[in-house]
């Protein structure tokens, strides 16, 4: 991943200044980071930590949106057009982040900016990184204290798909940012600072996609092995994209699920009108909850998606009974004919 520009500005929390100033501040860097293997590894670690976070997906607010726009898009255009310096622009952004940190957080951090290329796509990422105290062994085999970046404690982070933003004015998901569960006001303040508005509900879209898949499996009346194979293929494909922070397209997913009939699942979605977007940013937590229960004994074979347990399927542990509230249509017809 070639890195075009990168820099770190230190965000100082008011509690760490030793003064009565409640605004905190920024200790800026006047020079960019030097390309190195360590910087490449840091970018990889930051991306991995970011993709594992609970995020919002959307776009910059514009005319007609129920949100205030920010100076960020205009400043970013100036930078990309060569009319502004990377270190100066990022320092301005850092000063705004410092105010947010002073209001909602209790510790200082390093604000990392990265302008980099991944394949044909150009990205801009920012991440507020904190430190943790650790240990290392020096050359004399002694245990010594060492301060380390704590990527898991990434309080604020965002990633802009520059290529998509510039090329597709209709896109609603070229910008993603962290949504901290424990700090609603922090998340709202961060979105306002970015001038971001949510354009797609990743967890909701993922749940709808999984519901569409369950309906498809039921409609096709697939054997247990085939059903499990397709479920694993969907989860693996979507999880891989989620780990890279990339959306999945419904047409590509349909091809993965059935090479012989590559449009079968896609046509099912369109005919049933689930209201899904052509591209979906998969939500990893929702995917992890989607697994299949299966078992076979005494001539009885049962298989169903785990998310159905507690709704259309109930398990009575005391009497060792499985209660199916919605009998599949084809099975219901067979039972009627037998009766």
Automatic annotation (TrEMBL):
GO terms for cellular component: bacterial nucleoid. Residues 12-31 are annotated as: Disordered. Its main location: cytoplasm. The keyword DNA repair does not apply. InterPro entries: Nucleoid_associated_NdpA (IPR007358). It is found in: Cytoplasm, Nucleoid. GO terms for molecular function: double-stranded DNA binding; single-stranded RNA binding. Pfam families: NA37 (PF04245). Keywords: Cytoplasm. Belongs to the YejK family. This is Nucleoid-associated protein YejK. The lineage of its organism: Bacteria, Pseudomonadati, Pseudomonadota, Gammaproteobacteria, Oceanospirillales.
């Amino acid at each position: 991943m070639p890195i075009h520009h990168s820099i770190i500005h230190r965000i100082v929390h008011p509690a760490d200044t030793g003064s009565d100033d409640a605004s905190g501040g920024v200790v800026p860097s006047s020079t960019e980071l030097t390309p190195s293997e360590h910087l490449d590894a840091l970018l990889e670690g930051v991306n991995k930590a970011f993709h594992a976070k609970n995020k919002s997906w959307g776009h910059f607010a514009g005319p007609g949106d129920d949100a205030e726009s920010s100076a960020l898009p205009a400043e970013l255009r100036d930078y990309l057009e060569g009319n502004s310096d990377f270190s100066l622009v990022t320092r301005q952004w850092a000063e705004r982040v410092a105010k947010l940190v002073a209001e909602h957080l209790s510790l200082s951090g390093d604000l990392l900016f990265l302008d980099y290329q991944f394949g044909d796509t150009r990205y801009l990422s920012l991440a507020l990184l904190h430190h943790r105290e650790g240990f290392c062994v020096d050359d004399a085999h002694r245990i010594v204290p060492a301060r380390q970046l704590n990527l898991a404690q990434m309080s604020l982070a965002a990633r802009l798909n520059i290529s998509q933003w510039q090329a597709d004015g209709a896109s609603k998901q070229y910008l993603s940012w962290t949504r901290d569960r424990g700090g609603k006001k922090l998340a709202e303040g961060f979105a306002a600072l970015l001038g971001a508005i949510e354009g797609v509900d990743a967890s909701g879209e993922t749940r709808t996609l999984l519901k569409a898949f369950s309906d498809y499996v039921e409609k096709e009346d697939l054997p247990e092995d085939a059903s499990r194979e397709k479920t694993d293929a969907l989860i693996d494909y979507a999880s891989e994209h989620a780990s890279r922070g990339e959306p999945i397209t419904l047409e590509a997913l349909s091809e993965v699920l059935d090479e012989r009939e590559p449009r079968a699942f896609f046509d099912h979605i369109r005919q049933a009108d689930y209201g899904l977007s052509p591209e979906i940013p998969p939500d990893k937590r929702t995917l992890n909850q989607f697994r299949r229960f299966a078992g076979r004994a005494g001539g009885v074979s049962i298989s169903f998606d785990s998310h159905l347990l507690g709704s259309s399927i109930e398990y009575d542990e005391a009497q060792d009974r499985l209660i199916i509230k919605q009998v599949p249509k084809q099975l219901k017809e067979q039972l009627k004919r037998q009766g």
